[in-house]
Fold this sequence. Notes:
The chain is α/β, with parallel strands linked by helices. It is 35% helix and 28% strand.
Amino acid sequence: MESAGPFVTVAVGRGKYRRWWETVSRKVLIAYGTKNGSTAEIAQVIASVMRDRGLEADARAAAEVEDVAPYDAVVLGGALYMGRWHKDARRFARQHRHILAERPLWLFSSGPLDPSASERDLPPVPSAGRAARRTRAREHVTFGGRLEAGAKGRVARMILEEGRGGDYRDMNKIAEWAAGIANELSVGAQ
Length: 190
Ligand SMILES: Cc1cc2nc3c(=O)[nH]c(=O)nc-3n(C[C@H](O)[C@H](O)[C@H](O)COP(=O)(O)O)c2cc1C
């Protein structure tokens, strides 16, 4: 392996391929704030789509991530509760705002317990919008949520008793969004 300037020349098989390692985003963190687990599952789907496209992707609870520096790009998601982005997502965005502003960053929220998020683009709630501005996120998207038997909290039980629960996560839309991010991150990899 020989190197010249920002390029590293790697011998692969019979040919030599140049890879511009500096500009290629390869290791992606998908951090999430969740109460009942459905946002964590969305993060896992995003990570899996990215791995299928050759990226290294870690889906981790936002509260457990201490250092963002090892990652080249970040996706940060939070469940919506009472019109607010989950506190772990808010805290993560605040705590790591400087480094996040230097990384390619995408945000998502998951919440609506109806088909609205699949039918149109829903704007971020104010706390997610603030985080997007502070961290200079490239995009924010809202996905539908899930609320099912066993969810924590009195209000959750009331919503379920009223028959207003269900799973409104659109896995195709989530996978498409993740694939779009993977494409953006792979530009320059060829
Ligand atoms: C008490 C309570 C409050 C909620 N508030 C909102 C809300 O303000 N906006 C919204 O879109 N969804 C709201 N939801 C729906 C949740 O965001 C949805 O169930 C989400 O998928 C939960 O994510 P989690 O499983 O990761 O915690 C609420 C649900 C509960 C139980």
